[in-house]
Design goal:
Length: 136
Amino acid sequence: MMDKGISTYYVEGRIAGQNKIDLLVDTGAGYTAINEKTLKKLKKKGLAVHTRDVAATMANGKRIVVPIYMVDSLEIGGSCKISNVEVAVLPGDSRCILGLTALKRVAPFMVSVDPPAISLSNCDTSVGQNTLGVVR
């Protein structure tokens, strides 16, 4: 994990094997989320399928309707891969979020802030060295 200040932690990821992105680790977010820019790239390559729309309450309390897409895979930190992950699509160029739709799939997981690290279980073993991925 990377500490980007003001108590925010990020982990490097890849959605559907595409370019690396920084994912904000947010255990309070119900969905893993990507932005419209990322979705556009995935759709252009046929790597995201719309499944439904949901009403969501944002961190600022505002309620919006967000589309939910199924993506082929999510790699977390280069050592953990999970397949068929639901992601919410947030408007504009907002930051991407590692939320509970992915974190529940790699449970049990542990987050450490000193040093910044996240330990994940139940990862696809073809990416990492074993079924427990430790990402720093």
